[in-house]
User: Fold this.
Amino acid sequence: MRPNDRSYLKSHEWCKIDGDVATIGISDYAVSHLSDLVFLDLPNKGTNVTAGESFGEIESVKAVSDIYSPVSGDVLEVNKDLPDNLEWLSEDPFGKAWMLKVRVSGKSADLMSGTAYDAHCAAEG
Amino acid sequence: MRDTALKSVHASLGARIVPFSGWNMPVQYRGILDEARVVRGKAGLFDLGHMGRVRVRGPEAEAFLQKLQTNDASQILPGRIRYAMILNEQGITQDDILVYREPADWASKGKEFFVVINAGNAARDLEIMHRVAKGFDVRVEDQTEALGMIAIQGPLSQQITQRLTDADLASLKYYAWTRGTICGATMEISRTGYTGEDGFEIYTPQHLTTKVWDAFFASGRQDGLEPIGLGARDTLRHEAGMPLYGHEIDETTNPLEAGLDWAVKFTHDFVGRQALEVLQQNGGTGRKLVGITTVSKRCPRQGYEIHADGKRIGQVCSGNISPTLETNIATAYVRNEFAAPGTQLTFLVKDKHEPCTVTSLPFYKRSR
Assistant:
């Protein structure tokens, strides 16, 4: 069971909204399927991100994957220590390995609950 | 999708299974980098059930192979193996293959052959082989279903394998093959592989594939033997400078620009020979396969552009994180004038140029 205090995209990003600030990251499922992470590229503070569009890239041994934003808005804060500590993504994907905090101006229409996301992951295998 | 005989074994080992060239194959068990290190340091076991396995029988087996492929089959000694390519009439690579000549003490007296082909090209290869075979007294027999194929690769391969068989492995040369008893049955053992390490490939009657796999672990667990997926296999072959069809060689490349001229012998009349000769007379294609290393955190990936002086001068074939060299490596086709080792180039990730350096291949060579 993944945390139900937040919402998820099918592409395996999560966002947790407190007031008008969304904290964004990727799920344990994404991390375990990427495996052997080697590089993470995150946007700078002040960048505008758009719901459903890529805001960064994560590279594993064999492939580069886009990371999609669950919300639209300006980036308030970046977890700038994360790219140098990629093991946090395996250790604590829903906590210490958050990626961005964004001032929310809009949300993806495709967000789902933790329960629905669990079912989605189970179906993907 | 086809499954190999080891399907349930992979499931019990917790492998991640992916579709590869029409087969469900294990891409990794524990992690690609760790698996690659195990093969360099100890030994790893690979399910190669997807590879195509073909017998070439009949009195004109050698003459047929001379027409089919680029190496000189008449120069392969009994019991020895050579790397070669199948081309089309335009000299373009259709597949890369291994050609095995049977040992002199087998029934054929060293006159018949065995060919190992890539899974992704197997259907086309067999079509080509059957077409070429029409001109010869030869039989092409697809044995992919009848035989299982398991590889053990890494410095401890010989000691692990020797515990399983009566065959004298110490005297088996690199790129040679023999028969030996494993699990009570006679099977074929070749000292070949796709990792740059010492090792063996075992061709077993299919019904014994699982038994042979288990026997390897019974013998090799004490030495640290582990199962290795296709992800690490790709990393290992790339470090060792070995081409992969669909990357360094494909329907747009010829063996000369790929640096595989050592496997092309103009001593015989093979399909594609004329086109290659014309190409050579005209000075080639103007491009060459090179190695690339980078100090960038980004890895050059297949399809990325290579630039020099603000101009696009090449494209990446394969990129990998190399656990052995502890850097990112790539192979790329670049224009000849930029192919000298040490040449400083850039590769393009999205719209950003990252620095890289041309380096000679292979990236890794084991000490013997």
